[in-house]
What we know:
Blueprint: E1 6-13, E2 16-22, E3 31-41, H1 43-51, H2 59-63, E4 74-81, E5 93-96, E6 103-107, E7 111-113, H3 120-123, H4 126-139, E8 146-150, H5 154-165, E9 170-174, H6 181-186, E10 191-193, H7 201-207, E11 215-218, H8 225-232, E12 238-241, H9 256-260, E13 263-266, H10 278-290, E14 300-304, H11 309-318, E15 325-329
Parallel strand pairs: 8-9, 8-11, 9-10, 11-12, 12-13, 14-15
Antiparallel strand pairs: 1-2, 3-4, 3-6, 3-15, 4-5, 5-7
Helix pairs in contact: 4-5, 4-10
Amino acid sequence: MKTNSSFRLVFHGKQQVELEPFELPEVAAGQVKVKVHCTLMSTGTENIVFNRLFDEGTHWDKWVKYPFYPGYAAGGEVESVGDGVETLKPGDRVVFRGGHASHAVVNAGECYPVPAEVPLSEAVWFALAKIAFHGAVAANYRLGDRVLIIGAGPIGQMSLRWARAAGALKVLVADPLKERETIALTGGASAYISSPAGEAREEILEADDGCPPNVVIDSTGHPAVFAAALDLAGKGGRVVILGDTGQPARQTLTGDVMMKGLSIVGAHDGHQIPGWDQGAITGLFFSLVRDGRFSLGGLNTHTFVPDQCVEAYTCANRDRSKTMGILFNWKS
């Protein structure tokens, strides 16, 4: 990759990714230019897009048009600032919602300073933490809640940490991939059930002193999990659909909703929460990370240089059980 040029990843079609040069715009008033050090792949969203795992007519189908520029979690160093920018200066380390690219011109107000104690490779988790924060708000956690997180992928891992930070009594994690157990336990899981959610009822009850969870978070985006989540929730429980499936017609409503008086709520990155914009959520996230109440250690499992983009997405699809945080290193 040439050091004096700007490059970015692009999807030209289904399962077609490459690195391409692009012209960076001039820095206007109120903007900053950032030299990106690393970007974090959102394996759930990006794999749905990369493999076109969505039905025609869904919001995914309307969103994914080619060329498509993936990614939304970037971290780097401010290189220059435009007129009127007083909150940032060259050399500041920041994170922002941006695609997989070597450089970016961003509105200064959309860049968030990274505390000195937090490495950029961990700070870029701020975007996935923000998505999971929407699920935590939708769950309306109360002290002493018994929580089940279905799915131990990146969003599930962030959901687990928010539930712990909110004061849940127990947080169980169910995922058939045993390889994700250590990361979940490190993040505060009370127990890890390595079985599909639809087959895990007895294990979940045993791990939770015979009590069904009163909050269930479906972080998977797999349409078949919805019915299992309804089955596992206790009477009067809350079920949060946080994983955004590309096949909503396959999600099945069951009699559990009526018989148990369940509440179902959807949470999405695009929702607006009064008082909780991206900056406020990121500030809370970094505070919890610095205080040791939001563990990020061990989440990053793979790092690729941008020239290895084909290999990176192949890895995300082929080695799902072994991957968690997949980083692109743009620093060199």
